[in-house]
Amino acid sequence: MKTHAVRSSLSAAIGGFSTLALAIMAANVQAAQEVSLGHTLSSTSHYAVGAQAFKETLEELSDGAFVVNEHPSGALGGEREMIEGLQIGTVDIVITSTGPLGNFVPETYVLDLPFLFATYDQARCVLDSELGEELLGKMSDHDLVGLAWSENGFRHLTNDERAVTRPADAEGLRVRTMENEVHQEAFRQLGARPTPMAFPELFTALQQGTVDGQENPITVIVATNFWEVQEHLSLTGHVYSPAVVLGSPILLDGLSDEAREWFREAARASAEATRAEVSRLEEEGVALLEEHGMTVQTHIDIGPFQEAVEPAYQIFTEQYGSEMLERVQEKASSC
Ligand code: EAX
């Protein structure tokens, strides 16, 4: 009888303890909010490096209150689809090029003009300036939250038909472009046949010969094994491709100022890590692509390319005005 009494009070104590422990655990579980982060590139890419930095920073700053789940390789769709997802709240964070962004935030089209920036330092300096902040702020007018400018890189042309060293070589080539009217216009001016397409469809399109070529930064060409389907690479560096870390207003507008700041800081850490990876691969990537059998045209005289795409500027300013372009150019020249 005595033993039984001891046992039951013990089990009551244990029961009480475990109820409390469960309640605490439940409170913690409830507090940990899952954050989905999407991008189109592989888990070895510079975006994946940026996603990891975002995750580590946010989870640390929030002391585990947020847990980030990365969805790489276009698992949540192409960049245009994911941007739509941010607007309706089906995804929380997206790392994307500005490729399809102009369709949502026309003010950003200016950044996609060919040969606008000459070097990485210059592009980064403009994006990190007040002007860059202003452009990030414009996203709020279009149901998006601009958290930080990140980086995709200078884009180069690949194709499976011939070595391209002059604009005439690009004539008639079916080149996949991003879903970006400024890029499409530039390739039209070059005499190529631009075919806009979402990135997740690109590898198969190249493999099946639906298009002859594409253009992307070294990092993307490496991370996507494009050497398997493209023989020629020309280092045209025809346009700097910014990336941006975007958030969904549906998540972010509901957070405290402090929590929102954690997201901004995580996005800045993400951008920094991504840029470092772009710089590293700019150095090593070309040699790697050659090892994989690509023929690389390294010394391209860009003058004739620049001349050929010049009308794209006029078409752009006719449609969007020249004020923002002039401000970007002025800032770039002081960088
Ligand atoms: O943002 O679509 C593209 O070519 C982009 O460069 C790629 O999705 C990375």
Structure description:
It comes from Billgrantia pellis. This is DctP family TRAP transporter solute-binding subunit. GO terms for molecular function: carbohydrate binding. Mean pLDDT is 93; it is low at 1-12. By secondary structure, the chain is of the alpha/beta class. The radius of gyration is 24 Å and the shape is globular. Strands 1, 2, 3, 4, 5, 6, 7, 8 and 9 form a nine-stranded mixed beta sheet that branches. It has helices at 2-31, 46-61, 79-88, 120-127, 130-138, 167-170, 181-189, 202-207, 218-223, 249-252, 257-291, 302-309, 311-320, 323-334; strands at 33-38, 66-71, 93-97, 145-159, 174-177, 193-196, 213-216, 232-247, 295-297. Helix 2 (46-61) runs antiparallel to helix 11 (257-291). The termini are far apart. The longest helix has 35 residues, at 257-291. The chain has one domain: Bacterial extracellular solute-binding protein, family 7 (D-Maltodextrin-Binding Protein, domain 2). (2R,3R)-2,3,4-trihydroxybutanoic acid (EAX) is lined by residues 40-41, 79, 96-97, 99, 152, 178, 199, 216, 220, 241.
